Amino acid sequence: MDKPAAMRTMILVRRVLLTLAAALVVLVGATTAEAANPVIAAAKRTADARSSVFDMQMQVDAGTTSVAITASGAMRGTDTAKMTMRMKAAGVTSAMDMRMLREAGRLVMYMRSPALGTTLPQGKTWMRLDLDLAASKLGVDYSELIETSRTLGPLEHGIVSTKRVGTSSIAGKPSTHYVVVIDTKRAAKAVPAFAKQIRTIERSGIRLRRLTEDVWVGNDGRISRVGLTLPFAQQGVRGNSSLTMTFRAYDVPVGIAAPPRSQVFDFS
Fold it and tell me: CATH for 3-266, among 3.40.50.1950, 3.30.450.20, 3.40.50.10490, 2.50.20.20?
C-alpha cells in the first residue's frame, strides 16, 4: 500500500466529511422546535426523518490549490450513509464511491476509486477503514467527526438572527429561503461536539465568532437545501470549504451495506 497516497486520500475525505458533519449539526441539531422560528421548526422536523436522499456540491480552496466536488447520496439515521463523488483538482477528475456504517459498534468507511487501483492488492476494489483506528494508523484525527455525528445537540440556542430572503423551487418543491446567523460561542455551550470543532478551527489561528448559513425550507416543513462556508488551516495554509446540500427526498427506503469481503482490502 502506498501510504502517502492513502494519507492524501484520507485527508481529502476527512475535509469532505467534517464539512458535511458541520452542515448536519444545523440540520438535525434542534431537539425542541420553537414555533416562532421557522428554521428551527424545520430542523426539528428534518431530524425526525428516518432517511434522506441528497445532492452535494463542495469547493475547497487553500492557497493555490482548489478542489471541486459533486456528489449524490443517501443517509439512514445519523451515522449510516453512502455517496458517489466526482472530484476535480489540477485539471484531473476522479471518482469515488463511499459507504459509511457501523460494524460491531465501530464506525467504518469503505472507499472505491480508480485512483486507488494501483495501491490496492490484486483482486481488491474496495478499501476499508476503521475510523476508530485511523488516528494511530495515518496520523489523521477523526474524533471530531465521530463525536459530532453521534452527539448533535440543540443549536437553536446559538441562532441570533433569521432573515427571510425570498422563495424559489428546490428539487421541485416550493421553498422559502432564509439566512441564519449563529453565535458560535452560544452554540458551543449547547453542543459539546460543536465546541470541539470550533476549538480545532481556533487552534489554527482562525477566529469564528459568527457563522452564516443559507437555509431553504420546503412547503413540507423540512429543509430542502442548506449552504455554508467554513474556514480551515492546514500546514499553515488557510482555506475555505463551501458546501451546498440539496435534499431530494425524505423517509424513503435506503439500502446501505458493506461490499463483499472478497473485494475488500482492510487498511485498518
Answer: 2.50.20.20
Which cell is 207 given? 477566529
Side chain identity, residue 245? M
Which amino acid appears at position 4 of this protein? P
Task: Delimit the domains of the chain by residue range.
Answer: 3-266
Which residue in the block uniquely carries the three cell numbers 487553500?
Answer: 62
Question: pLDDT for 22-33, tens place per residue?
Answer: 544 444 443 333
**What pLDDT digit, counting tens, does each position of 105-127 carry?**
888 889 999 988 888 999 999 99
Tell me how far CA of residue 141 lies from CA of 144, 147, 154, 158, 228, in angstroms.
8, 11, 25, 26, 23
Please, is 258 exposed, middle or buried when counting C-beta atoms within 10 Å of its C-beta (0-12, 13-18, 19+)? middle
Residue 21: all three cell numbers together: 458533519
The residues pairing with 59 across neighbouring beta strands, listed in sequence order, are 68, 242
CA distance 177 to 169: 10
- CA distances (Å), 153 to each of 51, 94, 169, 187, 230, in order? 19, 35, 29, 9, 19
**Closest residue by Cα to residue 81 from 137, 154, 21, 27:** 21
The whole-angstrom separation of Cα 16 and Cα 85 is 10
How far apart CA 81 and CA 67 sit, in angstroms, is: 22
Q: How far apart are CA 54 and CA 46, in angstroms?
A: 13
